[in-house]
Amino acid sequence: MTQTLVVEDLRKKIGRKTIIKGLSFSLKKGEVFGFLGPNGAGKTTTIRMLVGLIKPSAGRITICGYDLQRQFTKAIRHIGCIVENPELYPYLTGWENLEHFARMLPDISKERITEVVKLVGLQNRIHDRVRTYSLGMRQRLGIAQALLGKPSVLILDEPTNGLDPIGIREMREFIRFLAEKEGLSVLVSSHLLSEIQLMCDRVAILSKGSIIRIDTVDRLLKEQARVVWKVEPLEQAKKQLESETVILSAQADTLITYYEKEKLAAWNERLVQAGVKVSQMEPKLPTLEDLFIELTGGETID
Amino acid sequence: MTDLVYNEMLKIIRKKRLFIIAAITAVLVALFTYAQFKHVQDVQKRLGTADWRTQLQQQIIDTQNRLNSSGIDEEWRKFLQIRLQQQQYYLDHNINPSAPGAPTFMRTFVENAIDLFLPLMVMVVVADLVSSEASGGTIKLLLTRPIKRWKILLSKYIAMLLSISFIVLSLVCLSWLISGAVFGYGGWNLPLLTGFTIQGEELNTANVHLISQWKYLLMELGLAWFVAVVVGTLTFMLSVLIRSTAAVMGVMLAALISGAILANMVSSWESAKYFFMVNLRLTDYISGTAPPINGMTLGFSMSVLAVWGIAALLVAFFVFVKRDVY
Predict the structure, then answer these.
(1) pLDDT, tens digit, 9 for 90 and up, residues A154-197
(2) Smallest Cα–Cα separation from B212: which of B193, B189, B195?
(3) What is the CATH number of domain A3-216?
(4) CDD domains from the xrefs (chain A) (predicted)?
(5) Closest chain A residue to B16 measured between Cα atoms?
(6) Which has the higher per-residue pLDDT, A11 or A223?
(7) What pLDDT, on the 0 to 100 scale, is given for residue A178?
(8) Mean pLDDT, to the nearest integer, of A122-132?
(9) Nearest Cβ partner for B14 among A53, A92, A104
(10) Distance of CA B178 to CAs A295, B22, B221, Å?
């Protein structure tokens, strides 16, 4: 089975307000799928519906072939998750926490617990109380807990929230490792665009409860590539380029146009022949951030 | 299921709640033992220590005289005969009725603890059973396991029943051990009067008979356990409904204290007898103290408590299974 998690037309109404307006997407085996949106876009509500904490008003969630509504225990068996912060019992040790959750799953051996502890690199502190852990360590323990039952789908809500730069990098590498080497499907939500860009294969951009775009990160970025020209005189250059492409902005001595790799040399030649001095010609791949702001129109929550 | 209950018990024990309760009980029992000891000393000083046997003999003769006099009605005669039996027992077994042993202390303690102290101890354990999972965020982990929600709540309820049993048991053990050191550990077979019924305004002594103290104590403990379970179940429901443990405690405490106050002033407001909190003093029915409102009987009070408990349990399960968790 290549599709581990399938979501069809998921909706959630609270009172008369529709918060989630018909989401459809699916996760493939071994990919990291990003869930991107500003605060309040509905990321967390959607994730809570995926793990059975909130009942959807309409729509269907299928996990490894099992319907989450009708076959809850069979479906949820294949999911490991951290929803928001990794909240564990502070008065128990890390090991006791894992044992606690292992008892709630069928057939988890001591060896399996040891294995996940090693996997997240917590061997040295596992017998200390969780109260004494740093946020990064709690995050790892949370992931260890999520991995206990050998899930096919891992759902992480803001996994890098509150981590320091080194912690963020480690987490990123770890998530990539889980997807590539262990073959898990990982769903990661974030409002940090740079994170998603570095970590994910595909992204869904969420705004006000609907998905505006789903695509691979590469393709989304390529589409938005620009060229920045430094030219003189500006008017002359503008006239020449206008007949070839669209000019997105013209300021002082700088022009910005779309990026088309094959035609760039020809455009340059045309400018030079028309007597324009081209002092700089810089293709610029946008960040997901630019893309995001453009797609959502710089939205704020209302 | 055993694993789930084990989990819940582990959490209760690691939060050290049961230990704290045992410690509070120990301190209070020691305090009451000392108070009781002072009281006994005082009584003995007044009566003269060597004198109690003759005193009792005098009482027996008094009772006999009253029995022999003509013109007392049949019911009263029966009651006096039972009194006579009791006094004779004290004399035959060389028991000073004003200097009782540990079982007598336990009995008084249970009778006084049943409507406030015991429910309070139960609350300390039960109030955060569910609400702490909600406020700590761990509820999200519990509910995303491959286990149905009602099973998770049931495991918590069973853990609650176990904890309550432990609390009642520790109350018994501690009060016996501590007070016994002062009053002596004997006195299990002391005969006690029971079987009083209240009819209208009058105390009906028709069914009064003697039973040994250990049987009496067992009955009272059974009732105390029942009250504790009902109070626990109500707290359990609040713990499901309210995220904040402090709020759960506050609501429950207000209800319990209002019960104590109401019991003193509601004798004319008849329908107040359907409140659970005026029905908590079940042991009064055994010892023959008049209930706060006319027409309340042991059976009535237990039914009222049972109905409250079952309703609370249904609400708790219904809400827990259906609720969206944010």
Answers:
(1) 998 887 777 788 888 888 888 888 888 888 889 988 877 777 77
(2) B189
(3) 3.40.50.300
(4) ABC_BcrA_bacitracin_resist (cd03268)
(5) A91
(6) A11
(7) 86
(8) 88
(9) A92
(10) 75, 13, 18
Contacts of B4 in chain A (CB under 8 A): 103-104
CATH 3.30.70 fits A226-284, yes or no: yes
Please indicate whether, in this complex, the C-beta atoms of A73 and B147 are within 8 angstroms of each other. yes
Q: Does ipTM exceed 0.85?
A: no
**A113 and chain B in contact, CB less than 8 A:** no
Q: Would you list the domain boundaries of chain A?
A: 3-216, 226-284
Low-confidence ranges of chain B (pLDDT < 50): none
Check A73 against B146: CB less than 8 A apart: yes
Distance from CA of A88 to the nearest CA of B (A): 6
Tell me, what's the pLDDT at B201? Answer: 54
Look at A52 and B144 and tell me if their CB atoms are within 8 Å. Answer: yes
Cross-chain Cβ contact B145/A100 below 8 Å:
no
**Residue B111 to chain A, least CA–CA distance (Å):** 36
Please name the residue of chain A whose CA is at the shortest distance from the CA of residue B148. A73
Per-residue model confidence (pLDDT) at position A301 = 41
Residue A120 pLDDT exceeds 90: no
What is the DSSP secondary-structure string of chain A?
--EEEEEEEEEEEETTEEEEEEEEEEEETT-EEEEE--TTSSHHHHHHHHTTSS--SEEEEEETTEETTTSHHHHHTTEEEE-SS----TTSBHHHHHHHHHTTSSS--HHHHHHHHHHTT-TTTTTSBGGG--HHHHHHHHHHHHHTT--SEEEEESTTTT--HHHHHHHHHHHHHHHHTS--EEEEEES-HHHHHHH-SEEEEEETTEEEEEEEHHHHHHHT-EEEEEEESHHHHHHHHHTTS-EEEEETTEEEEE--GGGHHHHHHHHHHTT-EEEEEEEEPPPHHHHHHHHHTS----
Query: Does residue A126 belong to the interface with chain B, where contact is any CB pair within 8 Å?
Result: no
